[in-house]
Amino acid sequence: MRNYFAAFVCGALVLLSVSCTQKQVVATGNAAHAATPSTAPVALEQQPVTAPQQMTAIDPEVEKLGAVLSSLSERAKEAIPNGDPKEFLVDLHAVLEVEKTFRSDDLSLYYLIDKKHSVSSEYEPKDLMPVKNNDLWNVSRNDLSLRPEAYHALEELSRAALADGIKLMVSSTYRSYSYQERLFARYVAQDGEELAERYSARPGTSQHQLGVAVDFGSITDDWGDTKMGKWVYNNAAQYGWSLSFPQGYEDVTGYMWECWHFRYIGVEACRFQKKWFGDIQQFMLEFLYAWENYKE
């Protein structure tokens, strides 16, 4: 896999250097102007300067971007394409602006939960909505529920699928801490701890506890080859749904490939993930976590 990371960071550093030089030009030019008779030409003032006030505002972010990207794993760095750091920051802020619209009394839809980042045994999403059989989808059980944002996004996804002649099957959604505790213990008893760790989350570390994840269809590897599976793969991101555990990334996500498991993160985040992180959810969420927790 080609590694564009070095070129990307180099671009960020060049942008930072150019911006600083422009500010020096402005400062030097102003000083020269003050010490020179008004009739004398001042060459530095004739140098084109691109929106120095705007550049001054973005300088710290370019520096922060380089530091945050450098903190990512090597595989994440490999996924980042060569591009303009300013363009990256514009796209990043579009994602962060959307986050401001999320409800403030619950976890962010970008919350990083994995083998290293968890929630407490008491956490339950606000205002869970029951997911029952209806005209839009079928369910495998009658005790399913989702966080409201994910529920409404599932409605949109399902309407689009129906328009193409496909009715989605929803097989698993929100799971409480205690439910996940029992499930993981059962898998450990069945397959041993080492294998269970590869396909089941310990309690407190499951995306399902956030109330934003859906397992579709048969929850088997061959689901991805079905008509339903192919449709979801090709269309989910347009409605804000992202594949959580792609094939070949167990060392990144901590879990084996799960073609059926999608998490709702929103349309803007899906675009950001695809454009800058090789369409790998874990890379994007780890970046957002590092960005929001960055300390100089």
Verbal overview:
The protein is α+β, with helices and mostly antiparallel strands. The protein is built from eleven helices and seven strands. The strands form two sheets. The chain has a five-stranded mixed beta sheet with strand order 2-4-5-7-6, covered by helices on one side. A two-stranded antiparallel sheet has the order 1-3. α4 packs antiparallel against α10 (267-276). Mean pLDDT is 87; it is low at 15-58.
Features:
two-stranded antiparallel ribbon; alpha+beta; single chain; about 10% strand; about 300 residues; five-stranded mixed β-sheet
Shape by Cα distribution: globular
Radius of gyration: 24 Å
Please bin the fraction of helical residues: 40-55%
Class based on secondary structure composition and strand pairing? alpha+beta
Average the pLDDT over all residues and give the rounded result: 87
Task: Tell me the total number of β-strands.
Answer: 7
Largest sheet: 5 strands, mixed
What is the number of helices?
11
Range of strand content:
5-15%
| N-to-C SSE string, H for helix and E for strand | HHHHEEEHEHHEHEHEHH
The strand order across the widest sheet is 2-4-5-7-6
Poorly predicted tracts of residues: 15-58
The CA-CA distance between the termini, in Å, is: 31 Å
